[in-house]
Amino acid sequence: xxxxxxxxxxxxxxxxxxxxxxxxxxxxxxxxxxxxxxxxxxxxxxxxxxxxxxxxxxxxxxxxxxxxxxxxxxxxxxxxxxxxxxxxxxxxxxxxxxxxxxxxxxxxxxxxxxxxxxxxxxxxxxxxx
Length: 129
Hints:
By secondary structure, this protein is mainly α.
């Protein structure tokens, strides 16, 4: 998909978005301007943090056409759109690091809770000679 997306400047996904979809993220990483609707996960900035102008709430052909036309025929607008999507690209790239931090915190908490539990169990057991 990435090799295909590198030859395109736009990616449109008006599907149901049952979760953080891989293809819109790959399209963004390939340099595409991503347009979605606001269905499913795409409605939540925590899952798809695109600027609101790229999340079409009500299917409006004129609004969509204007964005597509600007991407194709207005270099200044295209560069503006690319800059607007850059935080989304950065968010995608940083997801790996964020996941590592979350897993590390989880493991630290589990280990700490387990150590606390073990020390509580030992303290409650009578000394046996």
